[in-house]
Amino acid sequence: MAHLPARERDPSLEAAVSERKKMTLPGLFKKVDEKTPITWLTCYDYPTAYLQDQAGIDMILVGDSLGMTMLGFDSTLPVTMDDMVRHAAAVRRGSPNAWLVGDMPYMTYQPSVETAIRNAGRFMAECGCDSVKLEGGAEMADRVAGIARAGIPVIGHLGLTPQSVSALGGFKLQGKGAHQAKKILDDAKALEEAGAFCILLELVPDRVCQLITERAKHCIIMSLGSGPHAHGQLLIYHDAFALYPKFKPRMAKVFADAGAVIREGLAGYVKEVTAKTFPQPENWFGMPDEEYAELQRLLKENRS
Ligand code: KIV
Predict the structure, then answer these.
(1) 63 lines ligand 1 (CB under 6 A)
(2) Which helix (H) or strand (E) holds 233?
(3) Is residue 5 domain-resident?
(4) Which domain, by its residues, includes 285?
(5) Which of 58, 79, 86, 197 could form a disulfide with 67 if both were Cys (CB 3.0 to 4.6 A apart)?
(6) Can 135 be counted among the known catalytic residues?
(7) Closest Cα to atom 8, ligand 1: which residue?
(8) Is the pLDDT of residue 22 over 50?
(9) Span 134-184, pLDDT tens digits
(10) Ligand 1: nearest atom to the Cα of 160
(11) 84 lies in a domain?
């Protein structure tokens, strides 16, 4: 931590980050060619980004899900571009090496191609992102094409698209029926043709994900709850580490119960402060006797 004296930092952890190579677009496609699944997690803050970088995560998504996971809203809709810029820049500072994706929040790309390009540019210029992601299918192809033409790598997002949760009828599986599945396949083709280098499929049946992955020509297909056949997997960090108090989606696996560890630590803190067993001498700093005597003398002088 920045405020700790250098001797208390763990140099081996810092080395892990500095020795890692920066993930690039050719690096991601190399993993696809080698059939090595790409790892992707959401992240919204500096210390978590640091941990994810150490763990060797390939891609980090600063998702507008931060509206729910970090800000406590019931949906992603209230999230602004300024919220995203603040969080994405912090994540970049914590993770210099992962491929960083800025998630375009509600109404920052829907109004026009120009709005989309300007806001995508903010992620690149103000946060050091490597790419952006936006939701929607063929109807967003011109936004995707505009952003790609501006030289910004862009990711499409199909299936359950949380910004349209009202129109989709809730947070539920998309593309279960053949007609809806065909529409998702058509949308994936339209996004790839528009220049998306990657498409995220959220909560679609595994077979639909497999068909899209098999048909993709120059596009990386990522799965969130859409099965094992994609080129890689995405999870929401707060779901994977039991940090979101309201619910855990069925498809998310809890890899470690960080919530339980933190809760236990908090209870310990309350207990020790109450019992006066914290702090101990190693938790505070003393003052030399002669300085203290001088301080007493100064105080006495002031009184007279
Ligand atoms: O905002 C986000 O984290 C996302 C995921 C749900 C894919 O877009």
Answers:
(1) yes
(2) strand 232-235
(3) no
(4) 262-303
(5) 79
(6) no
(7) 63
(8) yes
(9) 999 999 999 999 999 999 999 999 999 999 988 898 889 999 999 999 999
(10) 6
(11) yes
